[in-house]
Amino acid sequence: MPTFIAPDGTELAYHVVGEGEPLLCLPGGPMRASAYLGDLGGLSGQRRLVMLDLRGTGDSGIPADSATYRCDRQVGDVEAFRDHLGLDRVDLFAHSAAGDLALLYAARHPERIRTLALITARARTLGVDFTEEHRREAAALRAGEPWFGAAHEAYEAVWAGSATDDDWDVAAPFFYGRWDAAAQAHAAADVEQSNFEAADVYASSGAFDPAAARAAIAALDARVLVLAGEKDGGPLPRVAAGIAELFPKAEVTVQPGAGHFPWLDDPDRFRRTVATFLGD
């Protein structure tokens, strides 16, 4: 298992799957170990996936200062990762909450970005959040599912801020396009792969300066993919389109039938979409 040292001395680990040009992958959660990315629906057949375990997750070390879990304070980790790999410019892939980290990195180091793939990604860095109304709108699309009644009741508890661990488990189908055996196994691994203390710090006060980030992103000379799932509430497809409009060179793609983990819902389609964007 390869490792490198972050600027504050924390040892960080990463995992490599596949062959070819490297694709640097940042996991979401927030603060979930990169194992949940798997081989990204077979994308490892066309790219060497270099997947970082963020500090305090997976095989990476726990930092001496828990305040360094804050998203903006992990930008230095991504830059140290790039430098460790000896890459002048990178193809950067970010899923979910890692969208915020990738956007902060792109704003601070625009010259290092060759392409940026934002996969069902957050953009609070740019002042775009996914509201309860967005989540409810996406949830309503699943009203015909056999699991909808119990899952929606549990989701109501999530929105009310009173959810138990069991409620989160019952609401999990909303995050997947298909609630099949693969999705259930993927969801079941969440708790053991996540650092919830770190997640609480990740987007804490002071992490984001949307005006500054938008100004930096508006000048980004890199191609950007914003991929949304048709059934996902974070972001809804129309919100993803709005995010794409903030970049000079962005395209938005909505994957039919997909939830928050599109490489599980339709691996072939996901692989083709991302590979085509990367030029593979």
Fraction in beta strands? 15-25%
Low-pLDDT regions: none
> What is the ordering of alpha helices and beta strands?
EEEEHEHEHHHHHHHEHEHH
Query: Which architecture does the CATH hierarchy give at level 2?
Result: 3-Layer(aba) Sandwich
CATH superfamily grouping: Alpha/Beta hydrolase fold, catalytic domain
Strand numbers in spatial order across the main sheet: 1-2-4-3-5-6-7-8
First-to-last CA distance = 27 Å
**How many H/I helices?**
12
Number of strands: 8
Compute the number of structural domains. Answer: 1
CATH topology: Rossmann fold
Essential attributes:
single chain, 280 residues, alpha/beta, Rossmann fold, eight-stranded mixed sheet, 12 helices, 8 strands
How do you describe this structure in short?
This protein has 280 residues and is α/β, with parallel strands linked by helices. The protein is built from twelve helices and eight strands. Helix 2 (98-108) packs across helix 9 (210-217) and helix 4 packs across helix 5 (165-171).
